[in-house]
């Protein structure tokens, strides 16, 4: 078991488009296991390789709850084949500690990927955490971050400022948002995806 060092925003690796994996060998299997160890250690539901400094198209997701047995899925070279509908929900990201805000995603995705045996699989997720996590992680492989997709940029900036990831005056942003809204922001929803 190896827990890898998480890359925190604004690490430049997070903005790079990751390279396709052409050979699934022992080093890829070890990377997948280390990524899972890192994700579980950080209480995340998903992790993409750029978040541990590896610019390759591999990501791991496990949306099972704490009471359930682990259900890890390793996605190699994932591609979204279909997207449909929309949903809005709280998201977090292991590369943005303590930052949560609402992000709009497609409700349904159909994704094609390879597993660690090199088999090509297809998976459909709709209206749930898995669908949201798949979209969040594939964005990471393309160098895209959830801060680009906030439904409310002021709320995002407030969260980023409070977490020390953005220079700014949290009080000022809070005022702009309105006092009531500003106060509710410190409590992330239990449903929040951190990935
Ligand atoms: Zn993330």
Automatic annotation (TrEMBL):
<keyword id="KW-0408">Iron</keyword>
<dbReference type="GO" id="GO:0006412">
    <property type="term" value="P:translation"/>
</dbReference>
<comment type="similarity">
    <text>Belongs to the polypeptide deformylase family.</text>
</comment>
<dbReference type="InterPro" id="IPR023635">
    <property type="entry name" value="Peptide_deformylase"/>
</dbReference>
<dbReference type="GO" id="GO:0042586">
    <property type="term" value="F:peptide deformylase activity"/>
</dbReference>
<dbReference type="Pfam" id="PF01327">
    <property type="entry name" value="Pep_deformylase"/>
</dbReference>
<keyword id="KW-0648">Protein biosynthesis</keyword>
<keyword id="KW-0378">Hydrolase</keyword>
<protein>
    <recommendedName>
        <fullName>Peptide deformylase</fullName>
        <ecNumber>3.5.1.88</ecNumber>
    </recommendedName>
</protein>
<dbReference type="InterPro" id="IPR036821">
    <property type="entry name" value="Peptide_deformylase_sf"/>
</dbReference>
<comment type="function">
    <text>Removes the formyl group from the N-terminal Met of newly synthesized proteins. Requires at least a dipeptide for an efficient rate of reaction. N-terminal L-methionine is a prerequisite for activity but the enzyme has broad specificity at other positions.</text>
</comment>
<keyword id="KW-0479">Metal-binding</keyword>
<feature type="binding site">
    <location>
        <position position="93"/>
    </location>
    <ligand>
        <name>Fe cation</name>
    </ligand>
</feature>
<feature type="binding site">
    <location>
        <position position="140"/>
    </location>
    <ligand>
        <name>Fe cation</name>
    </ligand>
</feature>
<feature type="binding site">
    <location>
        <position position="136"/>
    </location>
    <ligand>
        <name>Fe cation</name>
    </ligand>
</feature>
<dbReference type="GO" id="GO:0046872">
    <property type="term" value="F:metal ion binding"/>
</dbReference>
<feature type="active site">
    <location>
        <position position="137"/>
    </location>
</feature>
């Amino acid at each position: 078991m190896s827990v890898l060092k998480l890359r925190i925003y604004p690490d430049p690796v997070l903005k790079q488009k990751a390279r396709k994996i052409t050979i699934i060998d022992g080093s890829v299997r070890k990377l997948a296991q280390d990524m899972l160890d890192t994700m579980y250690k950080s209480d995340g539901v998903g992790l993409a390789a750029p978040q541990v400094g590896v610019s390759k198209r591999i990501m791991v997701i496990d949306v099972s709850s704490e009471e359930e047995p682990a259900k890890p899925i390793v996605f190699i070279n994932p591609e979204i084949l279909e997207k449909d509908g929309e949903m809005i929900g709280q998201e977090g990201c292991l590369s943005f500690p303590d930052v949560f805000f609402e992000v709009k995603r497609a409700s349904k995705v159909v994704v094609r990927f390879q597993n660690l045996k090199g088999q090509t699989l297809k998976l459909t997720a709709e209206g749930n955490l898995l669908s949201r996590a798949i979209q969040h992680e594939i964005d990471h492989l393309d160098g895209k971050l959830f801060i680009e997709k906030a439904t409310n940029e002021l709320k995002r900036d407030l969260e980023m400022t409070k977490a020390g990831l953005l220079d700014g005056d949290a009080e000022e942003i809070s005022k702009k948002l309105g006092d009531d809204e500003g106060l509710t922001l410190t409590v992330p929803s239990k449903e929040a995806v951190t990935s």
